[in-house]
Fold this sequence. Notes:
Elements: E1 2-8, H1 12-27, E2 30-32, E3 41-46, H2 51-58, H3 61-70, E4 75-80, H4 81-86, H5 89-93, E5 99-101, H6 109-119, E6 123-125, E7 146-150, E8 152-153, H7 164-168, E9 172-173, H8 176-188, E10 193-197, H9 214-224, E11 230-234, H10 243-251, E12 258-260, H11 268-274, H12 280-293, E13 298-305, H13 312-325, E14 329-334, H14 352-375, E15 381-389, E16 396-401, E17 406-410, E18 419-428, E19 431-436
Parallel strand pairs: 1-2, 1-3, 3-4, 4-5, 5-6, 7-10, 10-11, 12-13, 13-14, 17-19
Antiparallel strand pairs: 8-9, 15-16, 15-18, 16-17, 18-19
Helix pairs in contact: 8-9, 9-10, 10-12, 13-14
The structure holds S-adenosyl-L-homocysteine, iron/sulfur cluster and FE3-S4 cluster.
Amino acid sequence: MKKLYLQTFGCQMNERDSEGVQGLLLDRGFETTSTIEEADLILYNTCSVRDHAEQKVFGRMGHFRKLKQINPNLIVGIVGCMAQEHGGNFFKKNPEIDLVCGPGNLNQIPDLVEEIRLQRAPRLAIDRLNEEYSLENVHHRSGELKGLVTIMTGCDHRCTYCIVPYTRGDERSRNSENIIKEMRDLEAKGFKDVMLLGQNVNSYGKGLEESIDFAGLLEKIQKETPGIPRLRFITSHPKDAHTRLFTAMRDLPMVCEHMHLPVQSGSNRTLRRMKREHTREWYLEQIEEYRKLVPDGTLTTDFIVGFPGETEKDFLDTLEFIERIEFDSAFIFQYSPRPGTPALKLEDDVTPQEKSRRHQILLAAQKAASLKRNQALIGRTEEVLFESRSKRDEMRFVGRTRGYKRVVVSAERDIIGEFHQAKILSVADETLLGEIAGQ
Ligand code: SAH
Ligand code: SF4
Ligand code: F3S
């Protein structure tokens, strides 16, 4: 048996891509290993979104070189977003790499690996950036509880800081029948929580021959596969998040009451320069509507701090936004200049010290907001799906509420895969501590 070592960086879309690639390779006689030293094939599924993510991969090259000295038949592949971005440059700088394969070419990996093995020559496959979803009809799953389903790929926005449109291509929605086929498979296998994936899920349907939008897709999934108890989605774009989506979230039993709605900044001036296509006021209006229609719904977001030209006033607008909205949680990233993006032409003029100072202040404000939102749940009973054991204590189990809050409880027996009502007793950082109700 040939052994595959596959490591994934980046977003959930990469997680799903890796799962699909793994399925294709298992079909060709590979088995997986978690020990890199015993691998015959090493694949790194990579992310380009910030420099830090890329450096982690570049930092592994020396190790690959050593492993190839020990095992000359070893094949090393860089796949995903960094492959699309750097293309053939990898071979020039890093001769230890045998395969460079972009997100649109993933289904070719088994054949490419075979060619490399026979011909001992590197292969570059990045020419299918804007073709149809490369893992259509690949139903392999590594888990059995939580499933990921890519409903669209690429992005038609051009936020000035963002590399994703260049690594994933233009926006393409998958046809809804294929998505339903995948959902039926997950339903039959007993999956309990399915997350729909796309860069902008709520513009789903654009460009398809059938007439369907994202709320329509949610309705169709509810109707066709009602046996899946929980359905989630990421990521929504504020421009296309409106009443029809919120009412679908309110009315469809399987759709969980959680929205991840990245805002990036609380300053209109910065939003304009980021080309986000929404204002601070629009965002506030939309979430007011969301909270009215889905009163228990949770709201999470992303921010970028230290965008070129961000003034103290812009920064304070963001701080005020965090304090005012009280997101349940937020990812806050320091701006990282990306090759080929329009923002690269702007001077990266916020010093690293200042970026870091602003970052710390926003993190502290968000921590206080998360704590307040979580403390408001103390005394309440929430439905929790238990997903794993606590690493520190065998008899403690970790799960998620519908709103995606992490809950830990003690139980006398294994409750993984089960739903229970849990009473929330206290809060520790972003985790809720509870007990199973009625015990
Ligand atoms: N499609 C999603 C997010 C894609 S990237 C959306 O539009 O919301 C995930 C997050 O990474 C973004 O929301 C943004 O906050 C962050 N990000 C993207 N490019 C970045 C950059 N150049 N520097 C720092 N953070 C960045
Ligand atoms: Fe990037 Fe903007 Fe597209 Fe999101 S919407 S993937 S941030 S370009
Ligand atoms: Fe990273 Fe590509 Fe996802 S750049 S965030 S892996 S789409």
